[in-house]
């Protein structure tokens, strides 16, 4: 555990065909964001009958995550949160826009270059059981990043795997067992261990706690906070759980139907929300105080189809304060106070 407590200084990124013995995927911290998405647009195409329809999963999406920072990404199911995370990791190629990793444009990297980048960017998936091969022992799954990216083998590999498992709170004996022998929380710990094997600088946690019991969610979130402090990780934490987002995030970004509608420091979002959609989301969170008089803001209607998004502001079909301009012009994401930006014509 000594190396985990005092990790070595990050080494520069290797060339695409290099492999180090120690893993260590972290890169020197550059001035500015570690990961940045500029104008990210992701469209999918679906055939409906004889017509080819465009699915607007993500449109003109801007986001930046600083070194050691956690940005929480919130929105309803189907709003494009997972697509945004996958686009930043190169798992989905953007239709338009750019992805930068520590100032370097990585949008159009070759497959070989992206293979090398996997040491620096990783993902924690929503369902830990689906994320692990049920026919492989936990130790084999956790060892895979080392086998692909490093020369660690034999006893050294076994020691590295055991150290990882102990680091996330699993016993050394877990390496020899299959995923079905563990609870959901224990499987998620194994998934986290695998994601951190090469000491990445940036991790996308896509609904990493939503499949777990509430008590286990708290344990996993606290573990992620501890590992972030230990290794200087940067997180994009995707969730629809506003309580978890408030606990773990430094900044919070609110999405609606493929677009960012508000982003700011945690205190700005939770104490001074400006966009009507953000206010409605926050008002839906139960408050464990019978004396509370927090007014609930109901949203009528369903989320519009991403194959036929509304013109102007995409929230206009459900917004309680929409004006004529909301139905014709798209509001730009503008800074209203330092670090707090909103896309709204009314507020």
Q: Percent of residues in beta strands?
A: 15-25%
| Distance between the amino and carboxyl termini | 51 Å
Strand order of the biggest β-sheet: 6-7-8-3-9-10-12-11
The coarse overall form would be globular
Average the pLDDT over all residues and give the rounded result. Answer: 88
- Low-confidence parts, pLDDT < 50 over ≥5 residues? 1-30
Radius of gyration: 21 Å
Number of strands: 12
The secondary-structure class comes to alpha/beta
Counting DSSP H or I runs of 4 or more residues, the number of helices is: 11
Largest sheet: 8 strands, mixed
Percent range of helical residues: 25-40%
How do the SSEs run, as a string of H and E? HEEEHEEHEHHHHEHEHEEHHEE
Write a compact overview of the structure shown.
This protein is α/β, with parallel strands linked by helices and 347 residues long. Helix content is 29%, strand content 22%.
Plain-language structure description:
- There is one protein chain.
- By secondary structure, this protein is α/β, with parallel strands linked by helices.
- 29% of the residues lie in helices and 22% in strands.
- An 8-stranded mixed sheet has the order 6-7-8-3-9-10-12-11, with helices on both faces. The chain has a 4-stranded antiparallel sheet with strand order 2-1-4-5, covered by helices on one side.
- The longest helix has 18 residues.
- The radius of gyration is 21 Å and the shape is globular.
